[in-house]
Amino acid sequence: MKLFRTDLINGLNNTLFEIPVNELNTGEFVITKEYLQCALTSCPSMDGYKLNGTLELTTIETCDRCLDDYEQPHQIPLTLWLTSNQEVLTDKSDDIIPFPDNQDWVDLSDTIQDLIFLDKSIKTVCKESCKGLCTTCGHNLNNSNCDCPVNSINDRWNVLKK
Ligand SMILES: [Zn+2]
Ligand SMILES: [Zn+2]
Q: In whole angstroms, how far apart are CA 112 and each of 17, 39, 151?
C-alpha cells in the first residue's frame, strides 16, 4: 500500500483506504475479500507524520478442535510514525518508519502484513463452545453426536489401570 506525501500534507481524517490483498504477501493467511479496509488519521510530527487508524479484514482459519474452516474478523489498531528525523530513527521500533524528505510516498505493505500476522492468535477455535471431534471415530460433534459411548476415554483409562 502506497501512502502519498500529498495526502499527508492535506491531512487524513479517518480517511478510508482500500488495500488490494494481492499487493500483500499473504502466504501465511487467507483473506476473504479482494480488499482490506484501513481508516487513517494523520497529524504532522517531528520531521514527519504520526498515523493512527484501524485495519479491518476477515481471514479464513482452521479450527484447532474440529478442523473446520471458519471466518475470523479482525479489527487491528495501527499506530505509526513516519519520519526523516535521524534521532527518532535510531530507536528501532516497528512503529517507526523511515520517510526521507525526498520521497513522495511510503510503502506500508510490509508493516500491514506484520500487523495482520501478529493479530492472528496462536490458538484458533471456531467458537468457544466448539465441541471438537470425537476422539474415537473422528466425527465432528458440532454437527451431531456420534454413537460412540460418551465415557469411552474413561473406559480406556480403566483398562490401562487394570
Ligand atoms: Zn471448531
Ligand atoms: Zn465417535
A: 12, 13, 47
Q: Which of 64, 140, 23, 49 is nearest to 103 (CA)?
A: 49
Taking the model in full, what pTM does it have? 0.77
Identify the CA nearest to 142 among candidates 151, 152, 133.
133
pLDDT in tens, 108-147: 999 998 898 888 766 789 999 999 999 999 999 999 999 9
**Maximum C-alpha span of the chain:** 78
Q: How far apart are CA 43 and CA 60, in angstroms?
A: 34
From ligand 2's centre to the CA of 108, what distance in Å? 48
Whether 31 contacts 113, CB under 8 Å: no
User: What ligand has the least distance to the C-alpha of 66?
Assistant: 1
Nearest ligand to the CA atom of 70: 1
